[in-house]
């Protein structure tokens, strides 16, 4: 049996793996929280899809290959098959998405959550061992059945816990704590599966292995991580903006932000200036005090001045 190193770069690999698992879980839980508040089915599905990419792509798949950067066999070159590596990504995102769709619609129940957790956990197992199948070594890989079963149980339990958090956890503190627990569970499943592996070198000695180098995967991992975070953030921002301008069911809100600005005219300004609120109109008409309105003030009348009289005529005698 050959020596196998899982922490070639020391503690940096498990720390980086855990941070990716935590970040993906955190973003995914935030998105599922928004999905629960959505009133329209299409909008809820959008949030659940974003959460599937965040948890499956970022929290699980990126964590796996960030941890795999620390995997090394000193007696054999290590390479990765690109097709199987990308297939493992499809397994992670697809099965997490299916689980979220199951628990994200309808009433919450223990049976539904456990069934979705079994589906998602099976996908996580498929993701892990498909990625391991993509390893190219000048050796044969063997697995311990006991540890493989243990990793499968951890994957199902972690997936069930994650889906339960997705439909029940609210608030920043609880979401952060739940993401921390999910990160531990995902990393625990990965390293349990890695512990199940043993390497038997070929007797002819190490030969050239086809595939890409582990460090060559660092650039794609960084790019995919950045694209995932930016994509999730932009998609979430777009969905939040649409929800802000609608009432949750696709109908525009009646408000300042939803109504288009109207051209200003002098007539509108003068009419709006003399409009009274109902309370002010009631005060003006005397309805609140119970006293009759004084009405318009009478205009004082002035007595007409006497018309000038002609002087009496004088006789000519």
UniProtKB/TrEMBL annotation:
Pfam families from the xrefs? MHYT
Q: Which UniProt keywords apply?
A: Membrane, Transmembrane, Transmembrane helix
What residue spans carry the Pro residues bias annotation? Answer: 293-311
* Residues covered by region (Disordered): 281-317
Q: Which PROSITE patterns match?
A: MHYT
- InterPro entries found in the cross-reference section: MHYT_dom (IPR005330)
Q: Where is each MHYT domain found?
A: 9-200
Segments spanning the bilayer are 15-35, 47-71, 83-103, 115-131, 143-165, 177-197, 217-237
- Any one of the GO CC terms: membrane
Where does the source fall among the domains of life? Bacteria
Q: What is this protein called?
A: MHYT domain-containing protein, NO-binding membrane sensor
Q: What species was this sequence derived from?
A: Actinoplanes derwentensis
């Amino acid at each position: 049996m050959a020596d196998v190193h899982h922490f070639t770069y020391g503690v940096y690999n498990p720390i980086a793996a855990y941070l990716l698992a935590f970040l993906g879980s955190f973003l995914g839980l935030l998105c599922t929280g928004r999905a629960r508040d959505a009133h329209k089915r299409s909008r809820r599905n959008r949030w659940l899809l974003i959460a599937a990419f965040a948890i499956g792509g970022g929290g699980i798949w990126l964590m796996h290959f960030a941890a795999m950067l620390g995997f090394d066999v000193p007696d054999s070159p290590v390479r990765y098959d690109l097709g199987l590596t990308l297939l493992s990504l499809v397994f992670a995102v697809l099965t997490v998405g299916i689980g979220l769709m199951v628990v994200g619609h309808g009433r919450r129940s223990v049976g539904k959550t456990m069934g979705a957790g079994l589906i998602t956990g099976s996908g996580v197992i498929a993701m892990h061992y498909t990625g391991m199948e993509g390893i190219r070594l000048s050796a044969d890989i063997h697995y311990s059945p006991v540890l493989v079963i243990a990793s499968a149980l951890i994957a199902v339990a972690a997936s069930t816990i994650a889906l339960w958090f997705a439909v029940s956890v609210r608030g920043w503190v609880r979401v952060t704590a739940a993401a921390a627990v999910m990160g531990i569970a995902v990393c625990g499943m990965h390293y349990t599966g890695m512990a199940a592996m043993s390497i038997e070198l070929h007797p002819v000695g190490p030969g050239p292995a086809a595939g890409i180098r582990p460090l060559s995967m660092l650039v794609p991992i960084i790019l995919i991580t950045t694209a995932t975070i930016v994509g999730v953030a932009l998609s979430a921002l777009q969905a939040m903006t649409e929800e802000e301008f609608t009432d949750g069911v696709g109908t525009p809100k009646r408000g300042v932000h939803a109504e288009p600005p109207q051209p200003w005219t002098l007539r509108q300004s003068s009419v709006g200036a003399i409009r009274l609120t109902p309370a002010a109109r009631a005060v003006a008409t005397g309805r609140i005090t119970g006293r009759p309105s004084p009405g318009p003030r009478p205009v004082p009348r002035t007595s007409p001045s006497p018309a000038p009289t002609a002087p009496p005529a004088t006789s000519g005698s």
